[in-house]
Write a structure and sequence with these properties.
Elements (H helix, E strand, L loop, with lengths): L2 H39 L33 H8 L7 H8 L2 E6 L16 H9 L9 E3 L8 H14 L3 E7 L1 H12 L7 E7 L7 H8 L1 H13 L5 H4 L3 H10 L1 H10 L2 E9 L9 H10 L3 H7 L2 H6 L4 E2 L14 E6 L17 H14 L3
Parallel strand pairs: 1-2, 1-3, 3-4, 4-5, 5-7
Antiparallel strand pairs: 5-6
Helix pairs in contact: 2-15, 5-6
Length: about 375
């Protein structure tokens, strides 16, 4: 066996080993959270302000988003673009999108999905490549951020991508990817002049109680440490999402955030599923009946977090992030009901919305703000 063959074989073994490790990690997480979900559902004390969240009170999730300035609500505009016949308007869409470099930023732990499912934004990238005949790497890119790493680390990666672009850049961030984008604009003011606009998709801009819970739970914290270490990241990835840390972040960077919002059009997509505040919903048998109906592995996985949010009275959520947390004050927003956290970027039980049309209807809504 020559050296070249040995090298190829070793790479294949390493790749297979890493894939198996990722799959094993996902299985461990799935069964652990299955147990944890049931424990939460049947406990009166496991979810409280001492053990789960650091904040003294929960924001009224039912009213905070809808009570915002109606001038910032782009929902009707979004629906107009969403209902556009994309197939009959390919030329117009091509002529519009080809002007910019579209950078899609994946969310937390998105790399773990690749061995068993498609990655974040794969569907949108395929559409851009095949239908619009755009060339990946020049006209669009799924940013190779480290989905196991902190927003600080990923902001440096995005800064490089932006500054190297010959075109104006459109940034699309899903989940924590939206936080990576915001940090880039705040930490590196020199990139702002190159940004055409920003779209965030269900990003925990104000944090999530799920991150608070994980940070307090020894087993889950150690498990996440193992995962993040394998991915060359750190536990800072979950610390960045804690509700108190996001509140401090927004407060400490209030001036910079306002400058970004006033100089760059930003649209936050707020997605949620309304869940009835019923004790029956938290019943173990009922929860498992619901899980059996879930066809997507990741929909099953993220559904297991919902008891944490429901025990806190947060009935409008996408299984991971409260509705109220997905919008930053002063930014434009779009409200879309019946979306779980992965509906627009991966295979999900909640697939009523076309993933391609949803994301690019957001982009078109953002672009029209400047016309």
């Amino acid at each position: 066996m020559n050296q070249k063959t040995k090298t190829v074989k070793m790479k294949t073994v390493n790749c297979a080993t890493l894939t198996l490790l990722k799959l094993l990690t996902l299985m461990l997480m799935f069964f652990q959270f299955s147990y944890f979900s049931i424990s939460v559902a049947n406990s009166e004390s496991i979810v409280d302000s001492e053990s789960v969240i650091d904040s003294e009170s929960i924001v009224d999730s039912e009213s905070i988003v809808d009570s915002e300035n109606s001038d910032l609500d782009l929902t009707s505009k979004f629906e107009t673009f969403y209902n556009l016949d994309f197939s009959s308007n390919i030329k117009l869409l091509h002529d519009e999108f080809v002007k910019y470099r579209i950078v899609m930023v994946p969310g937390l732990l998105a790399d773990l999905a690749k061995p068993v499912n498609q990655g974040n934004f794969d569907i949108q990238a395929r559409w851009l490549s095949q239908v619009l005949s755009l060339k990946e790497g020049t006209d669009f890119i799924i940013a190779k951020t480290n989905t196991f790493a902190s927003i600080e680390v990923n902001s440096q990666i995005l800064r490089k991508i932006i500054l190297e672009s010959r075109k104006q850049v459109i940034l699309i961030g899903h989940s924590k990817g939206g936080l990576d984008v915001l940090e880039t604009l705040i930490a590196w003011p020199e990139v702002r002049s190159k940004i055409k606009g920003v779209v965030t998709v269900q990003s925990p801009l104000k944090g999530t109680p799920i991150a608070d819970m994980i940070s307090k739970n020894f087993f889950l914290r150690q498990l996440l440490w193992t995962i993040s270490t394998l991915g060359r990241g750190s536990l800072q990835l979950i610390t960045d999402l804690k509700t108190t840390n996001r509140a401090k972040y927004i407060n400490n960077n209030e001036s910079e955030i306002n400058q970004v919002i006033n100089s760059i059009p930003i649209v936050n997509l707020v997605g949620w599923i309304h869940q009835e505040p019923s004790r029956k919903f938290l019943n173990e048998k009922f929860s498992w009946q619901r899980l059996k109906k879930q066809t997507s592995f990741y929909s099953k996985f993220i559904y297991l977090f919902t008891p944490v949010l429901l025990k806190l009275g947060i009935y409008d959520n996408d299984y991971l992030v409260p509705k109220y947390a997905q919008k930053i004050d002063g930014a434009y927003f779009v409200n879309v009901e019946n979306l779980d956290h992965i509906s627009l970027v991966m295979d999900s039980i909640h697939n009523r919305r076309d993933k391609v049309k949803s994301v690019f209807a957001l982009v078109l809504s953002m672009l029209q703000l400047q016309s």
